[in-house]
Design brief:
The structure holds four protein chains of four kinds. By secondary structure, chain B is mostly helical. Chain B has twelve helices and no strands. In chain B, helix 5 packs antiparallel against helix 8 and helix 6 packs antiparallel against helix 7. Chain D is extended and about 75 Å long. In chain D, helix 1 packs across helix 7 and helix 5 crosses helix 7. Chain D has seven helices and no strands. The chains are: A alpha/beta, B mainly alpha, C alpha/beta, D mainly alpha.
Chain lengths: 277, 370, 268, 239
């Protein structure tokens, strides 16, 4: 197993990832949303270290796309363990973008803010939705600065101005809460979702019903999304993700072989015994 | 004998009243959100509820977030005693307590640090806000200003001079700090450049502040207004670049380093590894456990195979349309079947929610021990 | 797309229906009405597994894994109680490994009840309800160890499971136990299906429990659920028909009964 | 090597050790593993209280209560009046503090009241959640069995898919009815047809879960054979 996975990683072998229709559609959705001045995107990072493998790449591609579009992003979470990712992911994306475009800057407080961990799940979200002023409702960011004092985020106003909501999570029930409560009369945000592979089959029923507008399917989805991004922003570099994805494919093959063996060998034995006895 | 019976029955009565109290409180816990939901928008809009809803919800969250101490107390009780009395496995309890305390400590320290610099940044922002507010209030006219003071809002000239002296004080403070930071960051071009820029902005601000005293401030005329507007614009610039500088500086402080180390060095790796074990289990089970014995499991494995091949980069090698077959399988049969499951589960959830809210549990199934 | 923050007339109607159904069922059952609950294959599997243990004189293990005190646990207890009764009758050994202390108290009571009901209260051994650990994987490895020691002839996995499900069910498979699982969470069902002899899916747990325990509250809830789901099925059927008709005969496309669901109080 | 780089490589080194410690569980449960496992539990437990305080209690409850959301201007005026209604926040705070009666035998029933209160709230919200989730689900399940292209010709593939979708949906729903139809009636006989259909769904779950679990493993192996190995190398290089 280690070998199957290690080889691509070590030699940096990377194959084009499998085509993920859902990821392509999601790119168009994210590209399609238009943001007037004062309107923002809200990104929920609800994953801890447990699902870092799948959720972090997803968070990266989503935030990367929004920052490339210069959309002001409000980051927050329903899950305390995502504390670190709320600060790290956008920082790293910003640094990468600045390397990619010398002279341009992506900065905290201008391009994104981090409202931190918000307890209360459903109660919090339904209050957020009915709040007259989102910036005021969110109070302070993690550094203790009132969010209303960041010029680009002061003018959000009601939740109607949150045009896009992204939910990246591997937890059961968290995504459901957003689907159920992030809406009010005459308002439903464009909702995109990065899910760990476990919940892919679940997410599809929400895609079908239009309650969910875009889906990243585990790491494969993130890999294909980064391919799509690269098509539109050729300078962007995503080799690491592709290597990971290739290693993952190798691991899949191993598993399939193991299952096959596990079923064939007993069968053969029975067949032999059948002949001798 | 007599007394004991009294006592027993008394206890029984108390238990009943408590059970009743529990039912009532549980009901009250739900009644607000229930009514909020079933009342039509149009009626709610009329009432004050809509404006208070935000605060009320916060109140609910406040109740449950009062539980934050429980986890820590439980750990301290369980592992603290183990550690103190050196019971078996005390060294593990020690590790646990260590993790707990370091985490609380460093996260608190990190918070305090950022809070402090946030308030410093705020001090700078106030220049701009205040300048803008002076204009706003003057336009609203004496008596109905937005600003508030028990002794009444002072007249224009007093406020402007207050603004002036305050701004000059802050500007000096920032100057001092920047000269300090520039020493720390020698070599780091980005930071030095930042400081150079903000020095320019500071000069700009000071200049526009000093023009204030030149004007007449008995009324708010066009020149006055533009002067104040300029101050607030430039102050905002200064504040934002000062904020950037502060964040850069904080990043290099020990408490941030430790904080990052605890998360990136320990917490994330430990958590990731714990669950990575599952990857090993599944690999092991693939050979041992996943036997296709029944028609059911055969059917399931077939579907699983399609999905697995469809989502990996080698899938296309085996069959060109693997990804699209996977897509179809997820979109049609899977979605239909899972939606049915979900609807069923949803209905079950609804009934259970109603039972939970009205505390309907059969005593036989231990409901009374809730 | 319109969102829902306050109930629409249709929602109120459905909500009222839900309340009425629930209380109607409770009332009927208290009056002594007997629902004939479908005997699902899962029940046969459960009884078969216990019977096998009786023949071989092997122990029976039953775990509610990570389930904490709540409706799901009560459903599991409905099943556990009937299993414990048979175990008591056949004088078999019962193993009930525990994860959460709160649940443990409730579980112990209902097992004791079962032994009493079977008239074998003397055979009840409190040790058989054993606390392993309240850490997911510590519990899993503890369970593994237990099964390898005791080699039960039947292992029942009922309740809410998470990532540890595979570890648990594989352990049972290795010691050759007849395994029946019931998972409230669909993510884990797949693993049970390929490692257990029979798997109850989702609400089947409630169905089986109602069938075995005949507990009025549980039976009433299941009955009410069935009737509410019937309403949903009816709505969907009407919707499908109307959608088909309006596709087939465009001149009839004004006929959209489904719009009633999203109709607001203002009538639009 | 400047301090920043030292800190990062340091955390990589420690991270690698931690990873290996956890993986040593695969050989057998050992003290090394238990130590790091407990460290993790401790860290995770330490996270919540501080974050709840920092990100919710402080900004949303205590700030308004203390009036620290109000700006004080240099001329002694404030941005707005203090809103005394915020004092009402003291009620939920006080009520919530009853949680801590758990630690007294005599008064622990009061903690049950708080728990009951929160349960009631979540129950009532779950009712709303059900409808806001399920109604769109129902609506989108009403797929036309016949789909025509703009030209008027029958779109066979779509029609078949829709019919399939509706059929599967209804059969599986039927599988989860328990109190209808006598033994042997068509409904109760048809009930079990739903099960094979469910298997396709669970196959999808199986395949996806395999990917999820493997992804975790791959990420770790990647970290060890790449980042950690490099860090160790450079560390040895230094020493």
């Amino acid at each position: 197993m280690i070998l199957a996975v290690g080889a691509p990683v070590f030699l940096g072998i990377s194959r084009a990832p499998s085509r993920m229709v859902s990821a392509e559609r999601m790119y168009d959705v994210m590209q399609g949303v238009t943001f007037a001045p004062g309107e923002v995107a809200m990104v929920w990072l609800d994953f801890g270290p447990n699902t870092i493998a799948e959720n972090e790449p997803q968070a990266v591609v989503i935030i990367e796309h929004l920052l490339r579009r210069r959309v002001p992003v409000v980051l927050l979470s329903q899950y305390q363990q995502s504390e670190r990712f709320l600060t790290r992911v956008p920082q790293e994306v910003a640094q990468r973008l600045e390397r990619e475009h010398p002279g341009q800057t992506w900065r905290y407080g201008e391009d994104w803010i981090n409202a931190g961990y918000k307890p209360g799940a459903a109660i919090f979200i339904q209050a957020l939705v009915s709040a007259p002023d989102v910036a005021k409702f969110l109070g302070r960011d993690v550094t203790g600065m009132p969010i209303a004092h960041f010029p680009r985020f002061a003018q959000i106003g009601g939740v109607e101005r949150v045009k896009l909501v992204a939910e990246v999570t591997g937890l059961v029930g968290v995504f459901d809460t957003v689907v159920q409560f992030f809406q009010k009369k005459g308002y439903r945000p464009t909702l995109v979702h990065g899910c760990t592979s476990i919940t892919i089959p679940e997410a599809y029923i929400f895609l079908d019903s239009g309650q969910l507008n875009g889906l990243l399917e585990g790491i494969a989805g993130a890999a294909w999304y980064s391919e799509v991004l690269r098509k539109h922003f050729p300078a962007s570099d995503n080799r690491d993700l592709l290597v990971t994805n290739t290693a993952l494919s190798a691991a899949h093959i191993m598993i399939i072989l193991l299952i096959a063996l596990g079923n064939l060998i007993p069968l053969l034995n029975r067949f032999k015994r059948g002949r001798h006895g | 004998m007599e007394e004991r019976n009294q006592g027993l029955s008394g206890g029984g009565v108390r238990r009943d009243t408590r059970a009743l109290a529990l039912r009532v409180i549980t009901f009250l816990g739900g009644i607000y959100f229930f009514l909020y939901f079933i009342t039509p928008e149009s009626i709610i809009e009329g009432t004050k509820i809509k404006s208070a809803h935000e605060a009320i919800s916060n109140g609910f969250i406040a109740v449950s977030s009062m539980a934050i101490g429980l986890g820590v107390i439980n750990i301290l009780m369980a592992h603290g005693s183990k550690f103190i009395f050196l019971k078996r496995g005390w060294q593990y309890s020690a590790a646990l307590l260590l993790g707990l305390l370091i985490m609380i400590g460093s996260t608190l320290a990190h918070w305090m640090m950022t809070r402090h610099s946030a308030s410093q940044i705020r001090d700078v922002q106030i220049i701009g806000d205040f300048a803008a507010r002076i204009v706003e209030d003057a336009k609203l006219g004496a008596g109905n200003e937005r600003s508030f003071s028990p002794t009444g809002v002072p007249e224009l000239s007093k406020r402007v001079s207050a603004l002036e002296s305050y701004s000059l004080r802050i500007i000096e403070k920032i100057k001092a700090e920047e000269s300090r930071v520039i020493k720390i960051a020698q070599g780091d071009l980005a930071t030095t450049q930042l400081i150079r820029d903000s020095e320019q902005e500071l000069l700009g601000l000071r200049e526009s502040v000093s023009t204030l005293s030149a004007n007449q401030w008995n009324t708010l005329d066009a020149t006055n207004e533009s002067a104040l507007a300029q101050v607030s614009q430039r102050a905002a610039k200064v504040a934002s670049s000062y904020a950037i500088l502060k964040r850069k500086e904080n990043g290099t402080k020990f408490s941030s380093r430790l904080y990052d180390f605890l998360y990136d060095g320990l917490f994330n790796h430990l958590g990731a590894s714990m669950f990575a074990l599952l990857g090993v289990y599944i690999a092991a089970a693939a050979y041992r456990a996943f036997r296709i014995q029944t028609f059911e499991s055969g059917l399931m494995m077939a579907a699983a195979l399609v999905v697995m091949l469809g989502q990996i980069s080698f899938g296309k090698v085996i069959y060109e349309d693997m990804p699209s077959i996977r897509q179809w399988l997820l979109e049609v049969p899977n979605s239909a079947a899972f939606r049915a499951i979900r609807l069923g589960a949803g209905v079950a959830g609804l009934m259970l929610a109603i039972r939970m809210w009205l505390s309907i549990e059969s005593a036989k199934s231990g409901g009374d021990k809730k | 797309m319109n969102g829902l923050e306050h109930a629409t007339p249709a929602v109120i109607a459905l909500l009222v229906a839900a309340f009425l159904l629930l209380f109607r069922e409770f009332k009927r059952i208290n009056k002594g009405f007997e629902h004939n609950i479908r005997r699902i294959p899962g029940v046969d599997a459960i009884e078969g597994a216990v019977g096998r243990c009786a023949e071989q004189g092997r122990a029976v293990s039953f775990t509610t894994a990570l389930t904490d005190v709540g409706p799901v646990l009560y459903a599991c207890l409905g099943v556990l109680r009937s299993i414990a009764k048979r175990v008591a009758q056949y004088k078999l050994k019962l193993l009930v490994p525990q994860y959460s202390p709160e649940a443990m108290a409730v579980v112990e009571d209902s097992v004791r009840d079962a032994y009493n009901e079977a008239g074998r209260s003397s055979l009840f051994d409190p040790e058989s309800i054993m606390f392993l650990s309240s850490e997911q994987f510590a519990f899993a490895s503890g369970y593994m160890g237990l099964l390898h020691r005791e080699k039960p002839g039947a292992a029942f996995l009922f309740g809410s499971f998470a990532a540890e499900s595979l570890v648990l069910s594989e352990a049972g498979q290795q010691v050759g136990a007849r395994q029946v699982a019931a998972s409230a969470s669909p993510e884990q069902v797949a693993f049970f299906i390929c490692t257990c002899d029979y798997t109850l899916i989702g609400e089947e747990l409630f169905g089986a429990s109602a069938y075995l325990s005949r507990d009025p509250i549980q039976v009433g809830t299941v009955a009410a659920q069935d009737r509410f789901k019937l309403i949903i099925v009816a709505i969907i059927s009407v919707g499908v028909i109307s959608a088909t008709i309006s596709n087939w005969f465009p001149e009839l496309s004004w006929f959209k009964p489904l719009n009633l669901l999203s109709l607001g109080w203002e009538g639009k | 090597m400047d301090s920043a780089a030292l800190w990062t490589s340091g955390s990589t080194l420690v991270g690698g050790i931690a990873t290996l410690a956890i993986f040593s569980f695969l050989i057998k449960e050992n003290g090394f593993y238990r130590f790091f496992e407990h460290l993790f539990i401790g860290i995770a437990a330490g996270l919540t209280p501080v974050l709840v305080l920092r990100d919710f209690l402080w900004p949303q409850i205590i700030d308004p209560l203390l009036g620290s959301t109000i700006t004080h201007y240099p001329d002694g005026t404030t941005s707005e009046r203090y809103q005394p209604l915020y004092l009402l926040y003291l009620i939920p705070i006080g009520f919530g503090l009853l949680y801590y009666t758990l630690y007294s035998r005599r008064h622990s029933w009061m903690a049950k009241l708080v728990i009951g209160f929160t349960l009631g709230a979540s129950g009532a919200l779950a009712i709303r959640g059900f409808f806001s989730e399920v109604i769109p689900q129902i609506v989108s399940s009403c797929k036309p069995l016949l789909v025509f292209e703009s030209g008027g010709a029958l779109a066979l593939w779509e029609s078949v898919n829709n019919a399939l979708f509706v059929a599967i949906l209804l059969l599986v729903l039927n599988y989860f009815f328990f109190t209808f139809g006598r033994e042997g009636s068509l409904r109760s006989r048809s009930a079990n047809w739903g099960r094979p259909l469910l298997m396709v769904c669970f196959g999808a779950f199986f395949g996806s879960t395999v990917m999820a679990r493997l992804a975790l493993l791959v990420e770790r192996i990647q970290f060890i054979v790449r980042d950690w190995a490099v860090a160790v190398g450079s560390a040895v290089g230094i020493g």
